[in-house]
Amino acid sequence: MANNVGHYLEELHKTRLWRSMFRSGEGDSNLHRAQAVQTNVFLHLFAVKSRRRMLEFSATWYLGALTLGTFMVLVVTGILLMLYYHPSVPQAYADMKDLQFAVSSGVFLRNLHRWSAHAMVLLVFAHMFKVFYRGAYRPPREFNWVIGVVLLLVTLLLSYTGYLLPWDQLSYWAVTVGSNIASAVPVLGHKIRFLMLGGNSVNANALLRFYVLHCMVLPLTALLLIAIHFWRIRKDGGLYTPDKSAKEGEK
Amino acid sequence: MSEPKDFVAGMESDYRKAPVRVAFVTRRTSPAVKYHDEEYVMSYPETLLRAAVAVEVLVVFLVWLALLWNAPLEQLADPMHTPNPAKAPWYFLGLQELLHYFPPMVAGVLVPGLVVMALVVIPYFNINVEADGIFTRNRQRRVTISSVAIAGLLIFLIGFEVYVALPAVVLIAVLLFVAASTPADAPAGFRRWLRSKPLSFWIMTWFLMELMVLTGVGTFFRGPGWAWVWPWRG
Q: How far is the C-alpha of B70 from the C-alpha of A105, rounded, in Å?
């Protein structure tokens, strides 16, 4: 069985169509493996080789990869949810009810989106603390740490803007509480709040603004920053590895 | 009367680690050379496959969550009817808990602003890059400074009645005391580990503890009017 699948894959890799798409050629020498990364626009963000000891689970707990995983789940479920959602009052809430009772797997879709969002916030925090405790922010990786902090803020904003969209009591008052904090900014506070909500209170304008931010502006920002974040790992010499010999010398 | 050699010749015998190669490591060799004896693997498929498996395990876990628990959905939003208490999303409940003690300008703007600033500048200070144990140099002076800082923090928190934030401060103070009283030649173990920890470690660990305590209190221990409630009662 496994042999059969392997055989078909091999045949597939030899077809003209496959070779026109992926230019690493056939064979599994290290040259081909290097080319699989180098000739792919997405994989090209990563280095061709990785340090073996950074693949250990204890080195990173795979928190960065897992955070990216939640982001991908959120993009897919988010696009599907957009098909059933109108950012208007009170239709938004009616759409939630439709998801609950009328749409096939609507409840599952919303649940998956919701729990993945919580997981992403948790994982981003965990990733940050893990990187900090490993000391991986050290030069030349300082700026990637800064990008990471910005990504943390973008994640919080993504989650916060998404919180309003169901337009139920929970989301309405959570966003009201949150936006009141913005008005504490000296001098500009109320202006910032007005800009954020498109009015003086959470209303239909706020829903539309949060929807645009949640579905367009913030995800694209996050995507761009994630790409830079990964690319910079490669450019900064791979994942940070503490110099063991130097450490022992210290003791 | 020959000149002393300033290099050593060596040969790696494990062909899987390195093709046959002779390296001359002299005293003038750049430090970067030291890092090159790492074992590397091809990112495709080794790294990417592992990452894919990690993500798949996560997705299975998330699907399982989504099948078992429903996302909350309450009544239609009603601006006329304020729930009591009105809570922000859980990751902002630490902030909301702070708002209970401090004016909005401090809790809502100053504190989060300073936290973000502090996070951004971490890698730009040499003290964090070198990351020596906090008490390995100028021990006496640093013990005095940290004692004053902790006493000041305790007085400040008690003054504003932020009692929930006290345990973390006390715990950090105790661990700092242990670190300071550990001699350099102590046997390897927890105390030696504590002794090697730099200033940024102590601040970050304190921040992490307070973040969890405040978020936990805001989530589970606050009821109507933001009064203290025990989650297991009622």
A: 12
Q: What value does the mean pLDDT take over residues A208-220?
A: 97
Q: Is the pLDDT of residue A57 over 80?
A: yes
Q: How many residues does chain B have?
A: 234
Please tell me whether residue B44 adopts helix, strand or coil conformation: helix
Residues of A in contact with B75 (CB under 8 A): 168-169
Please give the model's pTM, rounded to 2 decimal places.
0.88
> Of the candidates A33, A135, A148, which has an alpha carbon nearest to the alpha carbon of residue B49?
A33
CA distance B163 to B186: 35
Q: Mean pLDDT over residues A103-118, rounded?
A: 96
The pLDDT of residue A213 is 97
CA–CA dist B16, A37 (Å, integer) = 22
Q: Does A80 touch chain B (CB under 8 A)?
A: no
Q: Where are the alpha helices (DSSP H) in chain B?
A: 48-68, 93-101, 104, 111-121, 126-130, 139-159, 166-180, 190-195, 199-220
Per-residue tokens: A55: 């693949």
- Compute the Cα dihedral for B159, B163, B165, B170 and give only its sign: positive
H or E element, residue A65: helix A63-82
Alpha helices by DSSP H, listed for A135-241, are 142-164, 169-182, 189-197, 204-212, 218-235
Chain A nearest CA to B1, separation (Å): 32
Does the distance separating the beta carbons of B79 and A34 come in below 8 Å?
Answer: no
Single out the residue of B92, B128, B130 nearest to residue B108, CA to CA.
B92
- Residues of chain B contacting A199 with CB distance shorter than 8 Å: none
Residues of chain A contacting residue B78, judged by C-beta atoms under 8 Å apart: 169, 172
What distance in Å separates the CA atoms of residue B198 and residue B204, rounded to the nearest whole number? 10
DSSP letters of B160-216? TT-GGGHHHHHHHHHHHHHHHTS-TTPPSSHHHHHHT--HHHHHHHHHHHHHHHHHH
Q: pLDDT, tens digit, for every residue of A160-174?
A: 999 999 999 999 999
Q: Which are the contacts of A205, defined by CB distance < 8 A and separation ≥ 6?
A: A197, A198, A199
Interface test with B, best of A23, A115, A196 (most B CBs within 10 A): A115
Mean pLDDT of chain A: 91
